[in-house]
Specification:
single chain; alpha/beta; Rossmann fold; six-stranded antiparallel sheet; six-stranded mixed sheet
């Protein structure tokens, strides 16, 4: 089994080195285009290069000179990593350095054999043109590890054909490598039957999906297509339901069949699986993952899995999760004995966000964050773009303890984490209760909604909402009604100079009464829409100062 991979100049990674769990499961987690699939493809490419070189050079000739020249590979042969042109295999598609010297791709894999002996084997690729590369081992004297011939990559299900002929293994691997595993699903299921595991698979499908798989139909002398039917279990009237071919099945059902077949067919192997949770709802994801781990253990399979699924992340030991948020994959940080309590209080998604962002913004609720985003956008503040994807936590009713505890636990995982808590003007917390690197700032007014109470803004907002609900005909009437209500219920000083004069009490209470009187149905979580109609001159200096303070902390993050 493999335990370490080192990559240079391959696709997403200029240079990366990462360990994996040699027994059981390793989970690759990160954002789209973060490198998860590249990490799997690098291992698959390593295996492909070794097999290609062994077939054309290692066995074909005894000439050392010919072996040193490398094996030629044309683009359409590469089932491991299909590309439109060969330079797409290189980091930043750059195949030469500034001095016109070739840049080589290196992929080095380390592992242990069945005797628990350590091995290390590397390969290199160099560019030959849009349709050609050359490849060879880094050290011709080393013996090729057996694991190099037992690596299989499975991308997510892409659709099942209505007609599927039988393919040989080489053709199947090409189709799977091109991201079309659904086109060989029946072939894999046929191989499950040939290996004597069909009844075991049928039982599992019956338990999870409440359907019965019928015997596989394949008569190559009379019909080239493989057919597999399933029958839903009896309905409420006790009658057997109709028989359907698997092409009629739902995507989650087909994804499960694909994963099942792949595991049963490849015993004693290293399987690289892209997003096994694809097409599955949460309940099915949990059942699938439990089953996946069980079968992998029974079949002596090492699994390297890329995923976005919170179900899979929360179902995996912390030391088997590898994050893809930077230039190289890495394990989740933190000491094992310190993680135990923290993991009871924070989710794995929180951990991943903390490592990616190294900053967390706390607000009382999502409404507050939405208002801040609108103000940052309207004022064209430097923080605007950052706030669109900020890692944030809600405290609920402005509770400091919730923010403090979550920040404390996250700091165990990510020691470099910094935080900022935007609070309403409530009883202030003693500074000795605030943990290091968590900055707490208070609004000068009672709460954030107080800064929305500007007569011209509210009148404008009412006019826009009237257009949406009642049409242009009633706009003037609603504006007049809003103007009168605001005049009667706001102090004259607020009308005269709203940026320098506040109302008495909570702004959210005033807004609730105002919108009820106007007949406008809007909840507190949508008050950001009021901020959206404000112009820059209507945004209070307190708001700019708060955004400046948050931005000052963010800028200190390396």
């Amino acid at each position: 089994m493999i335990k370490k991979i080192t990559i240079e100049n391959f696709k997403k990674f200029e240079k990366a080195s990462y360990d994996v769990n040699p027994a059981g499961i390793s989970l690759f987690v990160g954002p789209n285009n973060g490198g998860k699939t590249t990490a799997l493809q690098a291992i698959s490419m390593w295996s492909f290069v070794i097999q290609k070189w062994n077939e054309t050079k290692g066995k074909a000739t005894k000439s050392k000179a010919q072996k040193r020249s490398g094996a030629s590979v044309v683009r359409n042969e590469i089932y491991a990593v299909p590309v439109q042109e060969m330079k797409s295999l290189w980091f930043n598609t750059t195949t030469q350095d500034a001095k016109q010297k070739p840049i080589k791709i290196h992929i080095i894999v380390e592992g242990t054999n069945k005797k628990d002996e350590h091995w290390e084997y590397g390969v290199e690729l160099y560019y030959g043109g849009p349709e050609l590369i050359y490849c060879k081992p880094l050290d011709l004297t080393k013996e090729i590890p057996d694991d190099a011939f037992n690596i299989y990559h499975l991308p997510p299900l892409s659709g099942v054909q209505t007609q599927e002929p039988k393919f040989e293994e080489g053709k199947r691997r090409h189709i799977i490598g091109e991201g079309r595993p659904g086109e060989v699903l029946r072939n894999l299921l046929l191989e499950v039957k040939e290996k004597g595991r069909w009844d075991e698979l049928c039982k599992q499908v019956q338990e999870i999906f409440y359907v019965n798989l019928e015997p596989i139909t394949f008569f190559p002398r009379t019909h080239e297509s493989i057919l597999i039917y399933y029958r839903p279990q009896t309905g409420g009237r006790g009658k057997s339901r109709c028989e359907l071919e698997i092409a009629s099945g739902g995507s989650g059902f087909l994804q499960f069949l694909l994963l099942s077949a792949f595991l049963y067919v490849h015993e004693n192997s290293i399987l690289l699986i892209d997003e096994p949770d694809s097409h599955m709802h949460v309940r099915l994801q949990q059942g699938m993952y439990d089953w996946l781990q069980k079968i992998a253990s029974l079949n002596r399979v090492q699994l390297l899995i890329s995923t976005h699924s919170e179900v899979l992340i929360n179902g995996t030991d912390i030391d088997k999760i590898y994050t893809f948020f930077g230039n190289a994959p890495q394990k989740i940080k933190g000491k094992r004995d310190e993680l135990v309590d923290a993991l009871k209080e924070i989710s794995s998604i929180d951990i991943l966000n903390a490592q990616e962002k190294t900053f967390i913004l706390f607000t009382e609720g999502l409404s507050d964050l939405s208002i801040l985003k609108s103000w940052a956008n309207k004022s064209r503040h430097n923080i605007n773009e950052y706030l669109t994807d900020v890692f944030f936590g809600t405290t609920g009713d402005d509770q400091f303890d919730n923010a403090r505890d979550k920040f404390k636990y996250l700091r165990i995982i990510e020691p470099q984490l910094k935080g900022f808590f935007v609070r309403d003007n409530v009883r202030k917390t003693s500074s000795d209760q605030v943990p290091p690197d968590l900055e707490v700032k208070y609004w000068q007014r009672k709460e954030i909604e107080n800064y929305l109470i500007i007569p011209s803004v509210l009148e404008r907002f009412v006019g826009q909402q009237t257009v949406l609900t009642d049409g242009e005909l009633f706009v003037d009437d609603k504006k007049i009604k809003a103007r009168k209500y605001l005049k009667d219920n706001l102090p004259p000083k607020v009308h005269k100079d709203p940026l320098n004069n506040d109302i008495d009490g909570k702004g959210s209470d005033f807004l609730e009464k105002f919108f009820t009187e106007m007949g406008i149905n809007i909840s507190k979580r949508d008050y950001w829409k009021i901020a959206e109609v404000m112009v820059k001159d209507e945004i209070h200096p307190d708001i700019k100062q708060m955004l400046d303070d948050i931005w000052a902390v963010i800028k200190t993050i390396k």
